[in-house]
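Q: Predict the assembly, please.
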Amino acid sequence: MDNLAIETPLNAQLHSIEGLSIKELPICAKVTVRGDMPALSAAIESVTGLPALMEANTCTTAAANTLYWLGPDERLIYSEDPTAETLVASLREQLPAGQSAVVDVSDYYTVIQISGVKARSVIASGTPFDVHPREFKPGHCAQTRFGNASILISCREGDTFDIQVRWSFAEYVWKYLCRVGGYV
Amino acid sequence: MFIIDCPYCGKRDQTEFSCHGEAHIARPTDTQNLTDEQWGEYVFFRSNTKGLHRERWVHTHGCRRWFNALRNTVTDEIFATYRVGEVPPGAAESQP
Amino acid sequence: MTQAQRLDSGGLIDRSKPLRFTFDGKPYTGYAGDTLASALLANGVRLLGRSFKYHRPRGLIAAGSEEPNALVQLEEGAYTEPNTRATSVELYDGLVATSQNRWPSLEFDVGAVNSALSRFLPAGFYYKTFMWPASMWMTYEKFIRKAAGLGVSPTEPDPDVYHSTYAHCDVLVIGAGPAGLAAAAAAATSDARVMLVDEQSVPGGATTGRTLSDAYTQWFEQSVSQLHNNDNVTFLPRTTLTGYFDYNYLTAVEKITDHLGPGRGADKPRQRFWKIRAKQVIIAAGSIERPLVFADNDRPGVMLANAVDTYINRYGVLPGNDIAVFTNNDSAYLTALNASANGAKVTMVDTRKSVNAGLTSACEDAGIKVFTGHAITSVQGAKGVSSVRIMPLSDDSKSVAGQAWEIKCQIVANSGGWTPSAHMFSQSGGKLRYDNAIHGFVPDMSKAKSINPNVSAGACNGSFSTAKCLQEGSQAGVAAAAACGYQSTPGALPAVEEDGLGGIEAMWLVPTVHPVGEGSAKHFHDFQNDVTAADIHLAAREGFLSVEHLKRYTTTGMATDQGKTSNLNALAIMADIRGAQIPEVGTTTFRPPFTPLTFGAIGGQESGELFIQERHTPMHGCHVQSGAVFEDVGDWKRPWYYPKAGEDMHAAVQRESLAVRQSVGMLDASTLGKIDIQGRDAAAFLEMIYTNNWKNLGVGRCRYGLMLNEHGMIFDDGVTTRLADDHFHMTTTTGGAARVLGWLEEWLQTEWPEMQVYCTSVTEQWAVAALNGPRARELLQSVTDIDCSAEAFPFMSMREGKVAGIPARVFRISFTGELAYEINVPARYGRQLWQALQQAGKAHSLCLYGTETMHVIRAEKGFIIVGQDTDGTVTPLDMDMDWIVSKTKPDFIGKRSFVRSDTNRQGRPQFVGLLTKDPQVVLPEGAHIVAEVKDAPPMKTLGHVTSSYMSPNAERSIALALLNNGLQRKGDTVTIRLMNGDVVDAIVTDPVFIDKEGVRVRG
Ligand SMILES: [Zn+2]
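A: Predicted assembly structure:
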């Protein structure tokens, strides 16, 4: 397996113009975790070290892990590991059997990072969610719509955003971002 | 184009949601002993209210949770949104 | 060409920058800052088009976007745009415009014969004349469209690009006149996010080009520059608010490069469509002057008084040297004095008997003769005004009598008062009230819609004086910011002299020597749709009394200008006829868009490949390399077939279909929906969702399931596998993936929240290659560590292991009736898996196949495709699938509906096979099986063909059908009547055409 090349829907493309940089991030482990609180948050915390009783529409990062709020009983964990096997196994171990779900979605999504002074205008072209710096700050995330695609967007810092999108929609969202980049 | 206050995510654009009609219609438990009329009432009939209407919405492009809204079908004013299992606002007064 | 009507100085134009343009092929020159309208007027061109119905010569009426007449065809070829208002087109060098609605030329128009025939073209003419017989309507319509059409659409693709975007703000201000500027300036002193939009290229609204006072000029310039420099403010000129929707959602179109000319915007979008969500809206949209309705008031040269002002003040154009000003209010006296001061010989005609002495003496001082209590009774000059005749009005102003005067003039500047621009308030759901002081409708704030917080300020609120506009605007700005939680500190407002409407006396229909409708004169109120006062009288006589009936019967207010200049006049004339008050007749409802907008802008960037998303699987690149032809399945691009050199679709599909049954074929099945289901109640949940039993399914085993809705009708199907006691992997149809996940979540969240079950879509997590065919095992075994023997890996089971070195889940399931394996690997390895299998497959005669072969092969086995062989109206019993319906489960979704009388009745459509008597005939899908063949429809239908193919494995055509009572008809001969009249006989059979015993799949 170690000698297998990993592919992603956009093959780590990069698009760069003045005031805007768009790139696909390398693949990372992504795990969806669902279940009742507080058992779920306790398990997540013990595995990742991240507090999972968090405010809606926020995300938090520590060391190699990032934790996203997806719903009242749902969290998403990113880990810098290329595969989710370890993460899935440790979470399963911590969670009450039959009362939760741990699902490897590492390949289900890819992440496009967009940054630069034009980034917010580019994102606003496709999403009805308000990404004004007053409303959408580092540590904020939101599941919303971009064009016809569902996305999870998070503000990393200042003008840098991660857009998580399903593999099959990646090319569409990529082309959309690049096209609009020339318009704003 | 509504702004809908998802009980979990807060105020969002209507295009993130889908509406699934009247709320608080429980599926009958003892389905095999129902008359055709009783079953038909559950499957086919809705109140089609003019005025205050309790309806189900799902935050399709957001948290994917289902919830209920109390909406005036004439003015489209949404008075409240509430979680599944919660008592609808004003229910106590409107019950006979 | 000289600009004979251009003044030597004044206006916001740049006389050092001449711009060339053509109108109807003739070259002219204007200046930077001109509109097409002002440039034409500067050149003395007053005849701009022919009217819609009567083809009467028409010229400019207005200077703004309310212009009903001056619609031109702008540019040529791919850039051409019809029905463009000359008043809204900023002039650029090389502009090409042509007049519309005339043939062969503007000066000589054959259609003008309509005008001579006008007594035969009254209101309702089309309804009355062309309605019957209905079969002739198609013929009439062509004739009517040709004769009455406006401009022509381009036939080429649009060469421009467009951008659309969402925007959010605290305070949106519509209009950058004195009220809007004051509002935005006040709100922007707080921290509120402010948007200011205005349709003009420069702010100022009605004051543009006017000098009010030094203090005003200073305030104006300072406010504009502060707004431009404030990061919290988005100031958009050339931006028209087009629609106001619920929850303060508003749309606007920004013209970005239109004013540069076609193809000159570099790679910038031509227009931007703004989708704005505002917490508070301030409407400062101004007002629109209304014309007086008098005899032959449509002659080129009859204009609104404020238009004459605007052409002088903003564009340095004197529309004519001899101007008659005709009014019922004070505001037009400013026009008279302005025109006179700029060199025109002006005559003042006022319908009022007594007029403010200050105004008349100012006129006399300027050498302007004033006729009070007079009316214009006729206008001479078909292609341009040459003179008007005036007569004294009777005491009640309902008729004219006495000494007539002939006044020589080229321009009639007229004013019937001012109509507040309440469009946006009305679109927001607010109701209007009639204000007798100004004779117009104004917003009734007590009837505003609570979900759309807004306030109207200035002229659109009925406050016409500049001082009042500034005051209301500033207050509105402070209040709107405060409503959003921001404190403003507005600066002092400048002092300006009192201006505005002044006194007004209603005059809705100006009498002439003949009663309305008699004689040859026409009193137009709706210029764009050619509707006259006589038409309103006719409507009233025929009983179309309410405004909604009046509009539809006469078409008044229904042209592209939405009656901006005509609505109130129409209502008032009807009220007068009925002896009613204007509000009793009703108000019209304003609808979006405020002015016409391009489809390009609405679509924005979502055109071409961004119109609908194309979804690709991880193996997509491989399919492209293999020369696949693609099919759209939902949003997915799936390989349809893989033609070899020289092959057409039929040949490719026949070859692929044979290969699957003779050696082995490979299909990209990644698009199938996949849902991960976990939780201790997962099996119990599946028992409710599917018709068959799930509790007894062993770990590592797979089962096919049907999903029904509560009506008992099939809505999806697929194979689900038990991965662990409380863990399942469900597959759905490609198109049904999102629908099924939504369906599962709906039941779990709203009906059975106590169940411990969690569903997660994993469709894209897995790339899937399906191997089908007798040699599938040997191929798979050559690349995997899984024991593929029949004993170790039986049909309908799942094994984990490595395939081509890649971690995989292999499902032994089959949609072809052949020995088959579906190999699932993480998407990141999808392409490698595909390539490895392709490589290894060479030794096993592997053939790639697409969705068409998949369809043929499964039909040979009678496997249904939900949505093709079912249509949402058939139960499992109708599909002869009662083998999958549990008889022991007490309940599942849809079960109770099986015993409904309709699902139980005789004669329901049932699923059968059809074999045509001639094995070479392939029935068209959708063809009807008829009870009795007739020459022409209608014929009683007994059912229809749902799937039909030439099957190379059955060596003949095969078909699947839904046939009434079909299960009892096997062996019968039925008749299918085709669209082309051909009749085909077929025998009803079992729907399984190959390997009826099912030996191959278990091999
Ligand atoms: Zn939500």
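Chain A is about 20% helix and 35% strand. Residues B 6, 8-9, 59, 62-63, 65 surround zinc ion (CB under 6 Å).
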